[in-house]
Amino acid sequence: MTHFPNPQPGNRATRAKPESSLKVDLRPQDGQPTSANLLEVSSTGGLLMLAEPLSEGELVEMTIQSEWGKVHGMGEMLTVRSRQISGHLQAFRFLALEDKDHERLLRALNSLPH
Questions:
Q1: Predicted TM-score of the model (pTM)
Q2: For 43-61, what is each residue's pLDDT tens digit?
Q3: Cys-Cys crosslink for 80: which of 22, 53, 61, 104, Cβ 3.0 to 4.6 Å?
């Protein structure tokens, strides 16, 4: 089955920060595949460091590669928060995760510092 994260407007999901940056492979629907570093993650989305930002609203297939296994899902790119020397900080939200990927994500969130 597929899990569709449902953010609660008044109840922000708990954020976790990996101790070391995690690689994320992004495949935009109409663009070139690219990689990013995951800086922050929650059950509903997260924050990436990208060399070049993607368009706000762009749909991407994403794979987070981590010690707890790959988490694969669909996401939507949100606003670019800021430009840094090493790239662009851009938020995303998960649109759909298979149940096994959602379970891996939740296990990872429980093991990361909040």
A1: 0.87
A2: 899 999 999 999 999 999 9
A3: 53
